[in-house]
Amino acid sequence: MKFKLAVLLLCFALAGLANVSAQQADMQTMKEEFRKMDTDKSGFLTSEEMQAYEGRKFSDLDKNNNGILEPDELKADKTGMFIRADADKAGKVTKQQASFTFKEYFKFMDRNKDKKVSQGEYMDYWKEMLPY
Ligand SMILES: [Ca+2]
Ligand SMILES: [Ca+2]
User: Fold this and answer.
1) Could you tell me the residue ranges of all domains in the chain?
2) CA of 120 to the centre of ligand 1 (A)
3) Cα 114 to averaged position of ligand 2 atoms, centre (Å)
4) Per CATH, which fold does 2-129 belong to?
């Protein structure tokens, strides 16, 4: 598990953590996002809830509605969750990349593999991902 996490951290580092600095969120912001994702207020996120959130947020950010988040659109994402999807460092994120990345978030956050992400699991993930 520790190894998998290390690999993930490395992937994200390679995916352009250097570009992310401007978008680094704080824990308070991430906590607020958890509440937005947890649409049935169960205290847990399902994979479906995370995908739905990704869909809503992507549409919000995609101001010119071309299905791609461009640099100026990515800057509007306070969470930094979308810029991390820019695996090929193209400076933009496609719908497909965003969807894939949110599925990965879910897999890595759900440490006890009960197909739900608790607020604790979610916050632990960001404690390790964010530099403070
Ligand atoms: Ca766009
Ligand atoms: Ca879980």
Assistant:
1) 2-129
2) 33
3) 5
4) Recoverin; domain 1 (1.10.238)
Distances, alpha carbon 68 to alpha carbons 27, 58, 60, 73, in Å: 27, 9, 12, 9
- Using the predicted structure, report yes or no on whether residue 15 has a pLDDT greater than 90: no
Say how many Å lie between the CA of residue 75 and the centre of ligand 2. Answer: 30
Q: Is the pLDDT of residue 105 over 80?
A: yes
State in Å: Cα 109 to ligand 2 middle.
7
- Mean predicted confidence (pLDDT) in 93-120: 98
Confidence tier at 108 by pLDDT (50, 70, 90): very high
44: β partners: 118
Which of the ligands is closest to the CA of residue 106? 2
Q: What SS3 string covers 3-45? A: HHHHHHHHHHHHCCHHHHHHHCCCHHHHHHHHHHHCCCCCCEE
pTM, two decimals, is 0.80
Per-residue pLDDT tens for 56-73? 999 999 999 999 999 999
User: Nearest ligand to the C-alpha of residue 67?
Assistant: 1
